[in-house]
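> run fold Rac GTPase-activating protein 1
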Amino acid sequence: METAVINLYSIFESMRAQVDVLSESIEPQFIQMALNFEDSRRKWLRLEQELNACKEVLTKAETERGALEVKLKHARNQVDVEIRRRQKAEADCAKLDRQIQLIRELLVTEGSSNSIQLNEEQRSALAFLNARSQNPASIHSTRLTTIDESASILSDISYDKTDDSLDWDSSAIRAVRLKKRQKRVITFSQGNESLVAKTTVTVPADGGPIEAVTTVEAVPYWTRSRRKTGKTEPSTPQGNGGVRLHEFVSKTVIKPESCVPCGKRIKFGKISLRCRDCRVVSHPECRERCPLPCIPTMTGTPVKSEEGILANYVSTSSPMIPSLVVHCVNEIEQRGLHETGLYRVSGSDRVVKDLKEKFLRGKTIPLLSKVEDIHAITGLLKDFLRNLKEPLLTFRLNRAFMDAAELSDDDNSIALMYQNISDLPQPSRDTLAFLIIHLQRVAQSKDTKMDITNLARVFGPTIVGHAVPDPDPMTILQDTKRQPKVIERLLGLPVEYWSQFMISDNNQGRSDHMIIENFNVHATPDHKTSMFGPLTTPDQQMSKTPSSSSLSQRMKNATLNAITPKFSSRSRAAVSVHRQGHFFASPLLK
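> ok
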């Protein structure tokens, strides 16, 4: 019994000792825990208050945003209304301007057969109609340039006349901008006019009747001595020798049209030039800036939004280059050769899509000069080439080009490149030559910061592509490393080699008939004389003196020349014959 009591007592003492250990200094710890809980509660309360404040601010901001969106919608509607009003006002102004111009020509113009004889009192009352034509500033700012119908297509230099305004002061430029809708009514003195003549004679080889067409125009004289800017880079291709040129026909504008090179409207009653083949329209002073080579309008161009093969977009005669490529390249070379990151910077996808739709489905050529972002035009060119069903180097020759580019021996590599290029279809070969000449010029421009290596990386997938229509990911990865090498090899070939593909079929002799043009009028005559016999002016009468250079004698020589091999090849002989300018005298005009 005593043993059990002792055991119980020992257990009680042990439990008591443990309780003492647990209860020793426990109050400060509980107090500290309570303080921590209180601190956490205060932080939670503060965050809750901040959350409520942020919610109130958000609600207020959403309310303000809704109000601003409503205001923006009303502002947009108001802008649309104002734009329509402005367009209507401009149309009314242009209509009234044309009416005033017709009235002025009918009442005031002197020396016209349709003018009405007015006395001095009536003329003074109608003097306001001729006020603008007497303003020297307007004469200087809207002065037309000389139309060199007779010899411009023989020149190897493409003159760009857009820099004539660079020597104006800023006040003159501001004045022109303020009066950009003013109709150009200019009175030219006799000393500022020149006679320009063009005679076209068609000699059928089968002995049919001979046709001769002569055009005589008096146009304002323009001198190149005003050019004060530095030398401009020629457009693709360099020089016009052998390149398909435009065959312009002059006409009086009835329905206003837009000039393709400058993008400005050609107003009612003005003279415009239209190419017989490609239908490009321009001012007479903008003819030198029309894109070359001339690509005849295709009648069978696909109208679907998706693209086909390259041959669907080219003409049937050399050079076989899509019109879209020609216009894009010429616009890029006019405005983009000083743009940093050309072809590397992407343009607006929406603008590219709209331009592509207009090129592929539209009836007229869109005015690229009105596209402000040059990168959108480069994007259009890359998108067109990239989305062709067959790449430019074709599926058949894709591997051959890649293998030739990877050869370590430069001579063998270049030789294989020449061979592969000659095996390309003519549309692919001509388009490739046109693009390579353009890219070489881009690489030469230091402002673009696009050397051959950078251009090869950009155009490798676009021009070279793959050997199959739907490559697998591994093939794409392997070809991506090889494609730039092909472009580098192509860009390394001389420009003289590529230029031979730009020669037009028009330089070769034609078996059915031959067209001879009179190019012996190269400059403005020193004084007003008639070069065509009985054609006279009001102040002088001229008559033609018979000479040995009669039309019949010249036609006999031309007939003999038609059977000689002078025009049987693309040699320089064909060009040199035109440059002599002594085929025949101009026929008599009746």
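Residues 2-104 form one domain.
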